[in-house]
Amino acid sequence: MDSVASALAAARGGAQRVELCSSLAEGGLTPSAGMIAAVRGAASLALHVMVRPRASDFFYSDEEFSVMRRDVLMAKQLGAKGVVFGILNLAGKVDARRTAELAQLAAPMAVTFHRAFDCSHDLLGSLTELQEAGVGRVLTSGGKKTAAEGAETIARLVAAAAGRIVVMAGGGIRSHNIVSLIERTGVSEIHAGLRSVVTSPMRHRNEEVSLGTACLGEDEHYVVDEREVRSLLDAAENRARQR
Predict the structure, then answer these.
(1) Distance from first CA to last CA of the chain, Å, rounded?
(2) How many domains does the chain contain in total?
(3) Is 48 in contact with 81 (CB distance < 8 Å)?
(4) Residue 223 contacts by C-beta under 8 Å, 6 or more apart in sequence?
């Protein structure tokens, strides 16, 4: 999510934790200090902040890594409960040294390694490296476009983690498939981007001007869908009661 409105909608829907970022159309980038502070003050949710200095791949220069260090400290100073990042080396493996450095810098905040994990060369090997680097949680779709497609791999990761690191499933999770996914994988945490498109109320629009390259129109943006959040949680809670 990338706005105060989305944080409030997530809270009303019953979410326990939110991941705050900017530039959703680019997969999520580091949000501003102002946005972190505003969300922190508006919603009583566990706030985890994305630390990603640019779009594209997850191999970062020394200068970009320096920015990531600063952003981790910024998130800590503004009261975030956790940070979310992912760093790979040129061979597509987890950059264990830099990951450990950021994890140590982030303490005592929670540390999640995001879906850069799914782009890594060896998922099981990457899981071990992340555990050793001090990462507490990894977000994954099992190396596929959606968690449902990667369910078998996610199940293997959950088994390999053996409770030493949390494997959180993410990617295309909705109320209609969450129960099946939990049963197939054994995950205890899920990540879902439950949002809808909102059109600007502005009456004047200049169709001749375009200020970006995002897939949405210039007069549209995403906001978390409160009803979808509640529907997802209800499905998961109903399963738990029936067990």
Answers:
(1) 32
(2) 1
(3) yes
(4) 3, 5, 6, 9, 195, 196, 198
Nearest in space to 35 (alpha carbons), one of 4, 70, 9: 4
DSSP track, 27-79: T-BPPPHHHHHHHHHH--SEEEEE--SSSS-S---HHHHHHHHHHHHHHHHTT
Residue 168's domain spans which residues? 4-242
Which position has the token pair 């409960």? 81
For residue 195, what are the β-bridge partners?
Answer: 224
Q: In what order do the strands lie in the sheet with 17-20?
A: 17-20, 46-50, 82-85, 110-113, 137-140, 166-170, 189-191
d(CA 113, CA 85): 5
pTM score over 0.85: yes
pLDDT in tens, 129-164: 999 999 999 999 999 999 999 999 999 999 999 999
Measure the CA–CA gap between 40 and 43, rounded to whole angstroms.
6
The CATH number of whichever domain residue 151 belongs to comes to 3.20.20.380
Question: CB burial class (10 A; 0-12, 13-18, 19+) of residue 47?
Answer: buried
